[in-house]
Specification:
Elements (H helix, E strand, L loop, with lengths): L4 E3 L2 E3 L5 E6 L5 E8 L2 H16 L22
Antiparallel strand pairs: 1-2, 3-4
Length: 76
């Protein structure tokens, strides 16, 4: 982690992390890893995430979080 800084009474601290996105065979994007410390750890965690995801029973299309696009695009 980088040293903390302050701004208008807020403490700000940055850190270098690895973020991994994966796509399934239907083209759905998933965020498998958000904060791995190394690239090797990120890839290993992504593989474990995929194994866990595939071990779940098959999902129907409506089980996908946003089957028709992102929530922000929904006309409510």
């Amino acid at each position: 982690m980088e040293p903390a800084d302050t701004y208008k009474g807020w403490i700000i601290q940055s850190q270098k992390v690895f973020y991994v996105e994966v796509w399934d065979s239907r083209g759905n994007r998933h965020v498998a890893v958000q904060n791995a410390k190394t690239e090797d750890e990120a890839l290993e965690l992504a593989k474990k995430w995929i194994d866990k995801y595939e071990s779940k029973p098959d999902r129907m299309a409506m089980d996908e979080p946003y089957p028709f696009g992102e929530a922000i695009d929904m006309p409510f």
